[in-house]
Amino acid sequence: MGEVNAGRDHAEFRREVREWLETNCPPEMRDGAAGESSICWGGTTWVFTCDEQKIWLDRCAARGFTVPTWPKAYGGAGLSRDEDKILKQEMQAIGARSPLDSFGIWMLGPALLKFGTEEQKLHYLPPIARGEIRWCQGYSEPGAGSDLAGVQTHAADQGETWLVNGQKIWTSYADRADWIFALLRTNRDAKKHLGISFVLMDMRSPGITTRPIQLISGASPFCETFFENVEVPKTQVVGTIDRGWDVAKYLLTHEREMISNGGNAMGSGRALGAVLTESETGQSDPVLRGDAMRAEVDSLAMAMTLERYKDQAEGGQGVGDASAMLKYMGTELNKTRLELIMATDGADALTWGDTPASSWLRTKANSIEGGTSEVMLSIISRRILNLPG
Questions:
Q1: 179-185 vs 135-138, strand pairing mode
Q2: Phi then psi dihedrals of residue 228, to 5 deg
Q3: Which of 19, 49, 66, 243 is in Cβ range 3.0-4.6 Å of 100 for a Cys bridge?
Q4: Catalytic member of 255, 257, 296, 332
């Protein structure tokens, strides 16, 4: 398959993508990516579940298909939005797994593309695209709740470096991450939102430690992260010193968009219709079938809305406060979808492991991470609906 050319005929591009997938996607990677165990997170500590998972990642990374819309210079394929849609449609048609999921792709990458220096882009983005570095997010702090600007983790000016002290909490997969992107208080005399910087830190730096937090699902994706006299070069600040809040807000729109995809049955997981078809209860219970139909229609509407805002973002308008609406609705749809699957499976759904039960419990965190549902509703009421605060 040759290089992608801007403006090429979409039918020709679809044919080429279909041929490339048929040749390069191993049969073992065409199982529909139905569970947590099928996800490839990458990074230096990642253990591939099988040889085919690594083969699939390497082939997609070499072709730029782990980050299809990123420029080729940074590890992407330089695809347009329409070409990216075609690629996703063809991957879905054969049940292909996502070759790589990562916070680097979903959150940090877009922020670096917008605010990073050319040197930072060339240094950090290609390894993210190849799945060589796993990132975690250092936003939340103990006692701050959803007030992200209440950052107290402090970075003291040491000339060429910062000296970082403090604590983060709810840092997803911090114990498995290679690097962290974090908000640090770099100016205690400035106004609340103006004394913050967005900083990249190597998790192997002396003085950084992590401690997992076990959840109700039995998993421990979240951690406490501690910083004790950690030295960080100032070259690892993204954007302007003391103006990291601008980077943080932009990154949050991508995080909320990422979480909102959880409610998009067309984008991940099994469609409810397929689940009901395979279930005796799903075929015979009219109330369950009605609820599932409403959920599927809502999911399709959500998918169309997401596409509309992605097109708007590509046109330079950005998603802005609408990301709160997408995040809230995606969270609710994801909960509903898993609750219906649980109802369909009956007592069988209560088995433990990589099952609907653990996935359903995990959806409870969706209404907290990336900003609580209460915060999202507040943003929607004040900034979108202009209701009195």
A1: parallel
A2: -130, 105
A3: 66
A4: 255
